[in-house]
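Example 3.2
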Amino acid sequence: MKHGWMSFIQAARPHRRRHRAAAITVPTIDPVALTMMAVNRLGPATVRTATNGKALTVTVPDARTAEIFRAALSEMQKTRLTDRLVDVVVTAEAIPGKRARNAAEP
């Protein structure tokens, strides 16, 4: 009887060796490059929206960077309301010459 219960309990337990999940690698973002991009793209855009009051679009190369920029903008909106006018858009190839542009421009 005892042997039957022990085999039942062992069968019900998850066996860690058999069900080991594969390691998922998440691409890391270089913090220095991210900071430089934020200063070069978000900085001028927020200053322009604060002075002009016009909506601007900032382009970024990938969705993760866009998520980080949107989170930064949502925090900055608490102290400067004109930062709501900055929109972050993901493009396959960010154009280095056009960091930010008016929302009305094509």
